[in-house]
Amino acid sequence: MDTALYKNAETASPTPWGRVRRGRYIADRALKIICTLFTLLGAFVLGWILLMLLVEGIGGLSPAVFTETTPGPGTQGGGIANAIVGSLILTLLGIVVATPIGVLAGTYLAEYGKDSTLATVIRFVNDILLAAPSILIGLFVYMLMVQPMGGYSGWAGGVALAIIAVPVIVRSTEDMLRLVPGSLREAGAALGAPMSTVIVKISWKAARAGMVTGVILATARIAGETAPLLFTALNNTFWFSPSLMGGVSNLPVTIYQFALAPYQNWRELAWAGALIITLSILALSIVARLLFKKDKVR
Amino acid sequence: MAVVSGKIAVSSMPTVRRSSSTFDQGFRWASYGSALVVLAVLAGIIGTMVYGGWPAFREFGFGFITSSAWNVGQDQYGAWVAISGTLTSALIALAIGVPVSIGIAVFLTQLCPPWLRRPVSTVIELLAAVPSIIYGMWGLFVFAPLFAKYVQIPLNSIVEGMPILGTVLYARVPSGVGMLTAGIILAIMIIPFIASITRDILDQIPTVLRESAYGIGCTTWEVVRYVLLPQAGVSIIGAVMLGLGRALGETMAVTFVIGNANRLSLSLFDPSSTIASRIANEFNEAAGMQMNALLALGCILFVVTFIVLALARLLIARVKTR
Predict the structure, then answer these.
(1) Mean predicted confidence (pLDDT) in A76-99
(2) How many whole angstroms separate alpha carbon A16 and alpha carbon A28?
(3) A41 CB within 8 Å of a chain B CB
(4) CB contact under 8 A, A108 and B252
(5) Minimal Cα–Cα distance from A280 to chain B, Å?
(6) Long-range residue pairs from A292-298, CB within 8 A, at least 24 positions apart, any chain
(7) Residues in chain B with pLDDT < 50?
(8) Contact B34/A32, CB-based, under 8 Å?
(9) Is A52 in CB contact (< 8 Å) with chain B?
(10) Which SS3 state, helix, strand or coil, does residue B76 take?
(11) The pTM is what?
(12) What's residue B199's pLDDT?
């Protein structure tokens, strides 16, 4: 539509080379070219990063990567199986803790608090937490759990990741619940259902796909977080202990330590780990997008 | 939207079974409590940083901010190198990232054919999903060597001996890591955020405004310059500040590529450090006053990002409600 209108403007002044019009013509062309180039640049960088990950990571991928534990300094071979499992556990722990809190808090904002002062303040604080530096959340959980409990632990790592996931879930839950038409709730209330039943059976049901999308996006967000794990779960070269006390090996911190180390096999494992984690996160993001798109069409 | 109040729903149904009414109350309190958790986390972060950093603030006073000493052996700590490193790298990131982000947003809303919009926005937004540690690795192992070879070394021979450029753009060790590299990587990381918010803002501007401008013969450039930007200006500044907030607190990518040096340098090619990178580097080995100093750094970072993010939200929200 815009381009059609623009063409009309062009036919109305067919000579862009006129004295007055020349500057306008050049500015217009420059804008279009620069904007297109910037967009290509953005796409190019993503492509470049993915390509480098594939090139460097695929060489390091071997069955050992998925079956053996992380090697000690200076030893040959080894894998990152314990880091992969540890990451899965920490991410799962984080999301399991964060989902009920986030969903309920989002529900409060959309269904109970609405435009009250408290809800406005919480919404604002949630937006701040959404973009707050994740390393500070690591420091917070260090002081809250690691120091009092006397050591790094998987629990602390899970809590740190949960704190990062909660604002994402709160935001998406509230946004999705606000899209549910009020008449649906009125219909439920008219049948005599208490408010909690209306929310659970009607609002949540109607907003389900969007809320699930929010949880998936939160998972993608915390799966690659490194900074908050540095001071909480730290790392470990062994399999996790079932009590989750003590350091728990995880992919991001392993990548961080191995990438900067002088050993060749550590570097290769770091690239392999980077490839695995990036592909999983991009896959999660794309799944979330597809899910949401379907919901919108319906 | 119609309001359904919990009170009405419960009180108008006196025959509701007691268990369901208990569940109703419990549900209400659970959601109320969860919402308060959000507040508690923010209060907890502030409390922790102030409590942990207090000994350092008390010991060094205001000099903690202005001093550039960071000497673990003598227990002397000053934040200036980290503060200036944080601000400089974030400003470089904005200088590069803002024009590119606005360009992408204009492309997506004004120039892009409809069938291409979705794939292109997806690609740009996926840039935001890539974890920051991956940007760090890519920056250190792929970008930095190329940057050293094709930018720093040729530039060195040009600017050597020149008055100001010879200081600012001279690399004593052209290794590719340093302040400017960190700024460039940060720019790449904040582009998706600023671009997608700016795109949403531009999308909200009524089509009638654009159509009328095209109708009187404006070119796309003139529509962008005289209609869209003035209309969206304030909220675009909000989007930019949101990007700034991200750039200030970004940790892993910066830790990889900034070089983690403790001294002040005027050259953009020299290694430096930011608040976040210093905390990431030193916290695990820190004890006593060093740990307090690092928590004090965290406190400063939190205050700065809080102000920036709060302003960003206010600027963006003002336009949305209009």
Answers:
(1) 91
(2) 11
(3) yes
(4) no
(5) 10
(6) A292/A209, A292/A210, A292/A213, A294/A209, A295/A209, A295/A210, A295/A213
(7) 1-13, 16, 321-322
(8) no
(9) yes
(10) strand
(11) 0.88
(12) 92
